[in-house]
Protein 1
Amino acid sequence: MKKLQLLIVTSLLCFGSVVAQQNVNNVQLELKQPIQRKNIRIPDIEGFKTLKGDFHIHTVFSDGLVWPTIRVQECWAEGIDVMAITDHIEYRPHKKHIKDGHNQSYNLLVNEAKKNNIILVKATEITRDMPPGHLNALFITDAEAMDKLKVEDAFEAVKKQDGLMLWNHPGWKAQQPDTCLIHEVHKKLIKEGLVQGMEVMNYNEWYPLVLQWCIDYNLAVFANSDIHGVSGYVYDVKNAHRPMTLLFAKERSQKGVREAIGSARTIAWFDQQLAGPEDLVKQLFEASVTLKPVFHSDEKFVYRELCNNSDIQFSFVNETKDNGAPHAFKLEPGKTIVIRLNKDANAFNVTIDNCHTGMSDKLQVSLM
Amino acid sequence: MKKLQLLIVTSLLCFGSVVAQQNVNNVQLELKQPIQRKNIRIPDIEGFKTLKGDFHIHTVFSDGLVWPTIRVQECWAEGIDVMAITDHIEYRPHKKHIKDGHNQSYNLLVNEAKKNNIILVKATEITRDMPPGHLNALFITDAEAMDKLKVEDAFEAVKKQDGLMLWNHPGWKAQQPDTCLIHEVHKKLIKEGLVQGMEVMNYNEWYPLVLQWCIDYNLAVFANSDIHGVSGYVYDVKNAHRPMTLLFAKERSQKGVREAIGSARTIAWFDQQLAGPEDLVKQLFEASVTLKPVFHSDEKFVYRELCNNSDIQFSFVNETKDNGAPHAFKLEPGKTIVIRLNKDANAFNVTIDNCHTGMSDKLQVSLM
Amino acid sequence: MKKLQLLIVTSLLCFGSVVAQQNVNNVQLELKQPIQRKNIRIPDIEGFKTLKGDFHIHTVFSDGLVWPTIRVQECWAEGIDVMAITDHIEYRPHKKHIKDGHNQSYNLLVNEAKKNNIILVKATEITRDMPPGHLNALFITDAEAMDKLKVEDAFEAVKKQDGLMLWNHPGWKAQQPDTCLIHEVHKKLIKEGLVQGMEVMNYNEWYPLVLQWCIDYNLAVFANSDIHGVSGYVYDVKNAHRPMTLLFAKERSQKGVREAIGSARTIAWFDQQLAGPEDLVKQLFEASVTLKPVFHSDEKFVYRELCNNSDIQFSFVNETKDNGAPHAFKLEPGKTIVIRLNKDANAFNVTIDNCHTGMSDKLQVSLM
Amino acid sequence: MKKLQLLIVTSLLCFGSVVAQQNVNNVQLELKQPIQRKNIRIPDIEGFKTLKGDFHIHTVFSDGLVWPTIRVQECWAEGIDVMAITDHIEYRPHKKHIKDGHNQSYNLLVNEAKKNNIILVKATEITRDMPPGHLNALFITDAEAMDKLKVEDAFEAVKKQDGLMLWNHPGWKAQQPDTCLIHEVHKKLIKEGLVQGMEVMNYNEWYPLVLQWCIDYNLAVFANSDIHGVSGYVYDVKNAHRPMTLLFAKERSQKGVREAIGSARTIAWFDQQLAGPEDLVKQLFEASVTLKPVFHSDEKFVYRELCNNSDIQFSFVNETKDNGAPHAFKLEPGKTIVIRLNKDANAFNVTIDNCHTGMSDKLQVSLM
């Protein structure tokens, strides 16, 4: 040790105390992963603000594997505006270790959410066999009240607290392996206005039939992660994204979110697939993609830019024969391509192959 | 065409409703993030297997933010061979919610580690003011025994259980803001053989002076993450890596790990910096980098490939004047560059700028 | 062969002729690199459209290594609006193989540029020893006229064709190894209005002193690539970009570009460094970065989002002591961070460390 | 200017002359794209060295868009060992500008290839209507001799020069839109030993039927890029790769390459598809993938690592029912997965779905 102390004194003479000590005692190396919030570019539509939501998230307080705090950090970094922690009422495998009640995960997060400008919807997951299966109760005030023997009593409690429900993963094979049916109980809950939405996408699954139900019953579509582990290990959060429910809200607030759900103004988005009511999907497409005016022409062709201002990828199928445009092409997020059209082309009708507006319907657009 | 239509009809008979229903009920979309274990390429050295370790990891059972299970998943995916959960004895901010004892995080993991071929070292972090600061007790059998009022009694318990200790982040400014000193207690513990290593890298910090101590006292150097949140949100685990302790072990087992630590056969690695004893660093460099024979020559020059077989980046400074090679260059992981040398060059001595072999020493190599 | 034909016939029976032949004869695999135009997000400033230009590009018609066509493809894909091919008059190492005159590279490109909506400025590089060094003549009509023995005659030809010139890489060590001086010839050309700009960035070099000259003489700053090889092999065109001259133009046209240069309304941009006149840099910063209103407050702090709407990274140094904000931080392209300020903080003055407004000046902004 | 020079002198006093002048005159910014050679990890097989080749490349000397030099740079950076420039004899659209003869592109490259340790095979492309279509003549000595009116005379010249030929893209729809046939001329050339291989992959196309021909006739399979533009703009050279012909050679030399082709010891590789003779594909798979011994077992299962030491991705389909392993999974380059097998499983037979060993055959492997 003496030799060492001598060395330090010597080095002080050469470089000056502050610098030398900094360099020898403690050097800050680079963390290559700065946590900043990704601004996902999805345009607003006429009269509404576009919000991104995930309404199905677990923590260690049910069968999730992370502390609630991590969930706000994830949502914030991934560009999400509104989230709901939906720990199971009936399934709590860590209960031996974590004994708190059903409101605890929310209580631990509420302040963290505020500091990060995240709208936190108080929620829980009622978790039963089919029917009725799993339902998320949103906008509740006390999750303890949903801890009932009879599921009808849990529903009653949601109603009393002025909450609403969404039906989770109706096409999940574990609960409907051979069928995908709406049961009487669901019809009743829809009729009463207690169920106001369904997941058409959950985790990595998507249910075209459920989209059709939402359109037929005028319910909000949802795309939720149902995340149990770490989001960045399940989804490629850098180059892709978790399932997200796009909400078209009058304002960025709890009230705005609830009104958008109640009015079925949502679109489900995951893995470059959009699913929702035709008018909304069309408005979002048109706010995202522009076929610009002719910038050049020669004897045979006119040239126009097709520009994508959003972070959504669109897949085009050209339905007009012999207009000179390619048969099928993808337009990547934030990119532009040049479309060459025959001078005498008088139509450019396309199917947007990744925009689902019904069980077997896709968005049809006339680009000219 | 008629024949074809017939064929399609036939196929409907074969596959029929199931296929159709599958598509409408439940479509599997793509998760872009398959969890597979990254094989980090770091060559073995003569007589020893190179293992990658992280000996400083927290969970919700102290002040971490994830359930223990996540820690095995992270380590496995990131290519780590040996890990230690080191939840604090004295600092448990989630205690209100999680009441289990100090062995619980280990107990929850031990089977998960076995199934993933990860060597799990039983451990805990003794967490005191400086001196003695924070020390990780490794290879213990019962962490409850370290829960003592007097730190000396905790050390005694480690000794009784035949454990060993490493001194964490000696250059941490929160505990030594203006100095970086070894105290009498540390010298005593080293002398007794109870402290067998020190962290020269922790989180994003690196302490050149501590490297010098390890070399002078013949202790194992460690680079540990001290991770509290999610590894992939702190480090770029795809293109970079967490701090890792490279161990040169006689076998891939608990026994092999312990023997390597006891023999100070380790190198610290983070953010393209290596720190350790000169002989080990040199052996690792030479196992990783090869200057191949002349493959071409002309009137003035000979041409040779300099090839990096490892996932470590090396930064070269050419110390031989006028040998024709560039003054400074980096050799990326798994890459090759062509070195052009003067025909009459008779030396190619380099400093490897990112290979630290002492407080202010870097690896010197003669490449010819 | 007979056996094979038999196999095909058999397979026809199973799968139908068209499908079978497609699959067996020719399968389209995936090219992972679709060429689409990147829309670089740099906002317009009040009254002007922001264009991206590169005014220094070579082809095989001088000492470049690609056919002119590639240059339009590169510029288009990289989001460039205006480009100039500046093949050397005096240095044509491929002349033995390519005998065409000095207008050929432009002629081969003019139609390709039109089809891709790229503004192609006709240009050439006058390539002499220092002084005067290398100058790009822009907006010329016939490059042959610059092929003169005496450089004064070349300048005269530029003037006659109503062109203008920019002085290339004044800080290039090959021509000014120990100095960086303006010579009399440059002062004369500036006075005459023939030189209207200088490169403050070229390839990977940046010349702070030349920025000072541009500001003192009111000349346009340029950042050009001087590319000879393939752009994507020199620059990381996916995650970063080539040097670009940002022009603030009244319209997206040749006329608009020329007026912006003549009015010195340009900023140089490369490797996250911006260099230009203070008023322009400030306007661009303010169009890119927004400190949003308080969204949350508690006893001690207010919370505000700092949002970057551009593809430029900004490095902040907090110059106000004790206002609660961090000392230094980077704001990545398209990202948001939360700024926590003391409730009683009444200033938030920052230096934008990567925004150069003079030889040793950086942009100063008051964020509150 | 005087004011400026004063400023410099002032700054000298503060910081010292060298540093100040460097910083003000010329700062080196970072090029984010260092050109280093990627070492593609494909293991050797018993008795042979695995080389990577591309035998179909164009330059400005026919209808390519880059100078020959770029081609060596690309191949070197992409990890290719052996390349052939195959400029068309009959199609030279730039002839108006570039008048040199058919040997010029080779002559310009031969030294550049030597300096980069690339094996450059002298070659040309005989470019005719079908039949015979396009054929690359390799290992020739004078491409001028292939410039003949009658294609038979060109073939004769190849023979005289002791060259050999490969038949390019036999499934190309431009030449065989509705069929994919071997013509009499091809059969004759194969019989004579002049045609020793065929492209089973070209650009982004793959021809399963042609693979079958190669196997039936015992010819070498080729995967070539047929690159005309810039490789990095067509292929994702960072995360993926161009089509490559894997050669299993006795030595890394012209001689070794020729012997491997003559012995049909090649495999075609592109977009995660391998195509070749069963014995070679199997040897390559077995050199790449290892199912390691049991590292853990419990009551029901044994656990084993399946490890991929190569940069090739493999897609597994489990053909053994009820052995506990998943039905289908991908093993990424350089990754490991854990396979859990039933304790009583006595077989683990898999189809490697991306390894083609015939028109409709895939590699079958027994992993236990």
Protein 2
Amino acid sequence: MKLPTISDIMAAHGRIKPYIHNTPVLSSQQLNKMFECELYFKCENFQRVGAFKFRGATNAVLQLGEAERKKGVVTHSSGNHAAALALAASMNGVKARIVMPETAPVVKKNAVADYGAEITFCKPTLQAREESTRKIMEETGATLVHPYDNFNVICGQGTAALELLSDKPDLDFVIAPVGGGGLMSGTSTCVKGIDSKIQVIGAEPLNANDAWKSFNSGKLVPSVNPLTVADGLLTSLSELTFRIIQNNVDQILTVSEESIISCMLLVWERMKIIIEPSSATVLAVIKENPGIFRGKKAGLIISGGNVDFRKLPF
Amino acid sequence: MKLPTISDIMAAHGRIKPYIHNTPVLSSQQLNKMFECELYFKCENFQRVGAFKFRGATNAVLQLGEAERKKGVVTHSSGNHAAALALAASMNGVKARIVMPETAPVVKKNAVADYGAEITFCKPTLQAREESTRKIMEETGATLVHPYDNFNVICGQGTAALELLSDKPDLDFVIAPVGGGGLMSGTSTCVKGIDSKIQVIGAEPLNANDAWKSFNSGKLVPSVNPLTVADGLLTSLSELTFRIIQNNVDQILTVSEESIISCMLLVWERMKIIIEPSSATVLAVIKENPGIFRGKKAGLIISGGNVDFRKLPF
């Protein structure tokens, strides 16, 4: 199993730079005062398609060979990766086919359709997604761009941390959300490759704590029917992302649904930016663990800002 | 009646610069494509207290003499000006007394209290506000800092346009919302003082169209029981702001409630920033008048981002 290195992430950054936004790193004096630490928000909610996923998808599309480009790409995703691959493919003249659960938020379905991808709806189970995807691959020869169990995707996701550390090198912590582990794998590989003294922390909903269980038991434990407001973090780690996380992450901290919702509202109210529930997990880690972060500098990867405004949790 | 000039606004900017944020000017490729023009959003939702009002309030507080500083300031406001004056006063060691209507959004009441001002609640009518304020002035000798009918406040509000034109000098239009006319007076004085070829447009809810009526009839027409989702634009022009607007504004365009709400949602969804309904009027002007703006460059003053998330209009 080939694991990514900091060089792979730097190469990915060089490759995708012309396509992505170098998103801003924001801070809030009010939040710093409230939590008694210095917080630096790497705002991937301002990334194209409203999420970091555009980085990994773009890197994967740019690595296709000529024959692969002609047959197109396919993926299954609950939302942000779907839109990301749809746009990355369309910007590069490649056809994208997307398998989405029927239950995905309307705003995410619309985004995928707007980017011109072909959508196949399926039942909201991992099995149904994987079956639909396999069928499309067999029929069309399309290349699978898995949302996180993919070397090129992981390298792309790591470029957000690369830009964060280029703007703010003197951090004590970097915190990113953990779902399938693609962002966490890229982020931790990047951070440890640049400065091994920076602590890397994964933020996970208590109600979807497969990564916490896997990390602490040393064995890959899949998620069983997770139920969390952080709809981007329902997926389980893969062998690849688990291995990378074991190697590079210092700890995984779980957070309550209540903290996720209150931290999302806090960022909306005080910073006037839209972040999605999955992104609020990183601030929830700060909120639930004041002792760890007091007086320290933490970089927070804000993963995205795609929210269905008609179904808010507050 | 002394009217402000571009020199007064430049002087105000020099004075308040150490206290305010030089807010970013953002743009969105998606919105530019959708409306077929180039839009530059001057984001005063990222200003301290979440609104441009901090500029005018700070300028007014910094102009107090020593005797006035000791007696403090007083104002009546439905929200943003209240928080702005409370913070500006507290940052400068001056006591603030604020008269607020009982019906003001919770988030705005809390903000004022957090900044340490003394709040007096009153009925939600202009008469009740003015009476309470007069009483406080008589009892304490506090200086009234009116939300808009005030030379120093108007000069402060004009500094947002000054920063906008410093970032983007080659605009065809500048659009700002019109309520009591403080922002519009400062903005139009600034823009015409710098480049008289730039068209200055006021954006007003059709349901609170006193400025439109006054501007087009040449006579000051007060608002009677206006009812609009743009809760920052309920107030009527004063003699002072009307005179300045008559001198400097090219036209006032009214917008429907439906446009205000859909444009607010559009900015949240596409730009991932929180803007309040009053701010959405400027984009609603673009939406309702495609013929005027096609192919042009427009600077939009986004007045604020203070929203009660439990009472959203969508």
Protein 3
Amino acid sequence: MKERAGGSGFPAGRGEILIEGVRHRGRTVDVYIDGEGRIAAIGREAGRRSGREAETRIDGRGQVLIHSLVNTHTHAAMTLMRGYADDMPLQEWLTTKIWPLEAHLTGEDIYWGTKLACLEMIRTGTLAFNDMYFFMEEAARAVGEMGLRATLAYGFIDLGDEGRREKEIRATERLVSVVKGMANPRIRPAVGPHAVYTVSPEGLRWCADFSREEGISIHTHLAETEQEVRDCVKMHGKRPVAHLDTCGCLTERTVAAHCCWLDRPECTLLAARGTSASHNPTSNMKLAVNRAMPYPWMKEAGVNVTLGTDGCASNNSLDMFGAMKDAALLQKFAWNNQTVLPAPEVLHMATEAGARALGIHAGRIEVGAPADLVLISLAKPQMTPLFSEESNLVYSAAGSAVDTVICDGRILMLHGVVPGEEEILSRASKAAAALVGRSVI
Amino acid sequence: MKERAGGSGFPAGRGEILIEGVRHRGRTVDVYIDGEGRIAAIGREAGRRSGREAETRIDGRGQVLIHSLVNTHTHAAMTLMRGYADDMPLQEWLTTKIWPLEAHLTGEDIYWGTKLACLEMIRTGTLAFNDMYFFMEEAARAVGEMGLRATLAYGFIDLGDEGRREKEIRATERLVSVVKGMANPRIRPAVGPHAVYTVSPEGLRWCADFSREEGISIHTHLAETEQEVRDCVKMHGKRPVAHLDTCGCLTERTVAAHCCWLDRPECTLLAARGTSASHNPTSNMKLAVNRAMPYPWMKEAGVNVTLGTDGCASNNSLDMFGAMKDAALLQKFAWNNQTVLPAPEVLHMATEAGARALGIHAGRIEVGAPADLVLISLAKPQMTPLFSEESNLVYSAAGSAVDTVICDGRILMLHGVVPGEEEILSRASKAAAALVGRSVI
């Protein structure tokens, strides 16, 4: 057996793992993970077929196995602002609550806020996420330690000011250089032009060029509110999708969050450019954006639609199971149709489509794929009875049903235990309290 | 110390309980519960002040204490149909999936389905619920054993047929007699006229008269869909609220579920009659009823607005934390206003307003009140940081944060352990599979 860290019974690193007797797509299978973190065999007696003894064995009986969930839009360190201000008019909330806190954020805050976010994601089965915020070098350090996959973008905001743009360019270049220097295959840099209303056309063009040169993703907000669309037409003579396209930002490497206020031609253009959309139903309802992402049009056009939670200031949870249920509910309600966005499509959004958007891997459980796996306990009332894995996962499971997670072949949570949890909760709490102390005069 | 059942460390019945060092409304308090299941003292050192030794001590440090949640609309035994059929057009779903199963339900099914529902509710902090279904004597037996509070109604459906009406009257009378005969103060009977489109005016009038004579509640569905309103106006020349009123069904003892398609005068009439509304946001979105309950009008009129999950066929969860979040999200989205239904109002709906609707007690934690208490663990990422108990409870907690529950002075779950859970999961699973086996030819 593998050397174990401390007395916790927790495997210290990567090594062969055999998951025995787990339920997957209605069958009972074994899954063998090799020492490189890849799935080497799936099926009855995959362990025996491999002809060797696994260093770690996980009893998968009474569990269902799914691919890890992929959160394609969040601001991870905003966990520090969870519950700090809710139920307020949008502008007042931003100007009197959120922005004053953000003005006082430090790298240390980002580190502990991102660790708290990673802890919450691990506990709820999300092992890859698309992040945009500040002090992202500290986010990279946190993600590196926590063992998840992340695509990290600095939130580029020039407000049309050339001096500010130069600073944002330097900050973006620095982040990309730092992350590339880490040479951690789980962590990738991205360019993060915040939105068409906060970044000038020049800034957007620089982001597009730089992302192409570096071969990295673009992460942006798009068509979240009606105001954004109106202002964009007024300022640039075009709706936001066309404007982004003109500036070169609509690429196959782009993830556009929200996409609430799109018309049909905009859906078609996103599809034509191969740009992925991140649906954020919980945030959109909480912030009352007054329109649901037009999923039926997106689906018809062939857009790669993925799922995100948004940050904790506007959700207030990073549990993708909650986002999955909210997506299914909101789409049905908004389109007045019980059949829109059925459970299997929601799961596809939250796994394969998300993985494709971030270009990380197939997002499927198959031989040769990286082992990004989530085991969900069936011995729970909300998983009983089990007529449909998909329905229970989307409509009743909730993230708390997650028992064990494996990312890139490393066990990050084993039977509900995440090493170091207590310190993260304590340090993040203190960082949040101190942040408010510094910000409120 | 109290005698404990088996080797589980679980208190066998009622007895003095001292909860020490728990957080409640921003303070740290002790709570002393007397042998009659009532709160005898709250405050610093409530235990010492009582001058006696509690039989059971619960360490409340790192926990927040709230009143138990009250689910004012469900069909508990429909847990057996969880995930059996989803994402289908409403009529096809009812006629090809739900009704065929319901035609084959047995008393034994209701017993195990209700036990499963009670287990899920205990785990997620709901200790009182308003139930309407069939074979309710078996539901009463299940609730009696599980230790929750419930108001149980037989779903009265005469479809305008006199013979059928007579049968429904007998079934209703039988249930009321059986439940009264149990003499269990936690379990109350109610009259359950299903809806204006399934019960004749004669049936509604009988329900109104009988509920008045017996001094028991009325539980009905109201204005769930636009079709219901249209058909009611066509058949009875009145909108549903006025029609119910004409038939005597709008009383202070009435809980009307859904209330999506109300106009302003209907809200005013509900308020004038003292009738409670049960908001069911999750079900309303999943079944695409195309309108959210007009909460701002209800609030303005002074209606007692409560919260429900609906049954597991249309939700598919009984977690009231999910319903709380969905209510806050849906109302904001539907009214295009971030300030509608803030977290403290949601908590009020789910506790005090619910308790008032069911006439059970104050629904508040105060000296002299029955001890219906829920302890929620703060050592969770979703409860960190803790700027606002209300915000975290509504927007991020989820039912899985519930650690310990006490109903009427009896501990039903202690640190996540509910006695007998394994048998309930196993028996309910088997009952669900057998039900489908009998129904599908």
